[in-house]
Amino acid sequence: MENLETLKNLEELWLGRNRIRDVNLCGLKCIRKISLQSNRLTSMLGFQECLGLEELYLSHNGIAKMEGLSTLENLRVLDVSSNKLTGINDIEKLTRLEDLWLNDNQITSLEGIDVAVAGSKEKLTTIYLEHNPCASSPNYSTTLKQIFPKLQQIDSDIFM
């Protein structure tokens, strides 16, 4: 990805299935939506300066660690499903997060999820964690409902 810094007013960037290995989006202050699904990313670094970002889609990559997200305070949707994540990190300051897609990773436990997603505890309405080891734990749904009082959907189960 080169020469994007000249596109100062770009609001959406959809680059799925392009074999992209790393990201540097400095200068894209107006960007609201980014999709880099099904690429070859192994890191989440490179989005820190995209302060207006509301939706970030990074599913089907090789990302092993959540990082570089703490500055994205406007983020409402985060999709990091089908990666190699073993934990939830760097999103505790995100207060507007409504949808969090973490399914098909390697997250073993729900322990500490209340701290990891503390900033959006009252805002989160949808969470996907299915196909992670933690989803087979006893009281999986009950635990998530207790932590996140506004949840309307856990995996494919919708409730009000």
UniProtKB/TrEMBL annotation:
Family matches, as SMART domains: LRR_SD22, LRR_TYP
InterPro entries per record: Leu-rich_rpt, Leu-rich_rpt_4, Leu-rich_rpt_typical-subtyp, LRR_dom_sf
SUPFAM superfamilies given in the database record: Outer arm dynein light chain 1
Top-level division of the source organism's lineage: Eukaryota
Keywords tagged on the record: Leucine-rich repeat, Repeat
Lipoprotein is among the record's keywords: no
Segments forming a coiled coil: none
Protein name per its UniProtKB record: Dynein light chain 1, axonemal
Lineage, uppermost ranks: Eukaryota, Viridiplantae, Streptophyta, Embryophyta, Tracheophyta
